[in-house]
Specification:
This protein is mainly α and 191 residues long. It is built from seven helices and no strands.
Amino acid sequence: MPSASPPGAKSSGLDFKRSLLDTFAINERANQLLLANIAPEAWQAPPLSGRGRSISAIAAHIHNVRLMWLAAADKSAKIPAKLDADKASREKIQAALKASAAALHALIQKALDDPTGRVPNFKPDVVAFVGYLVSHDSHHRGQISMLARQVGNPVPPKAGFGLWEWGTLWRESALSPSPNFSTGSRASSKK
């Protein structure tokens, strides 16, 4: 039988469930950081090619895909409202993303509490589900960053590099469940 750790001793084990939930929270913090740093002029600008989504439409798509998975995986979940990208402001989209992230957090927690790690209607399990969600969001963060640059309003370097500072994003997401993501951002600046 393993001996118990003395009081105050550091645990040597990884809290896998907490880590997976933190990873999804870090991912959402990155979304919020990026969106808070998109210039107002770039928010609704169409792609230069004339085809594809605007930045606001891409961000709304992230939220709406989350809703699709929530509806498929948890019939009892309270699902946030779908967004109309043409009518949604940056603030509304950021709030909607926070709401869908919170709903997904609950779904992930539910799957982690299931001994099989099952997410209904998603294969193989909750780890792959979180991987899918992070990959989907990351793909679209790349599109948003590229489109902002193409329309002449690149993401400020501090924010761009900040997307890769997962330790900082982790601390920020852990310190405040709903931090003010617009602090020091272009969203609140005037040109």
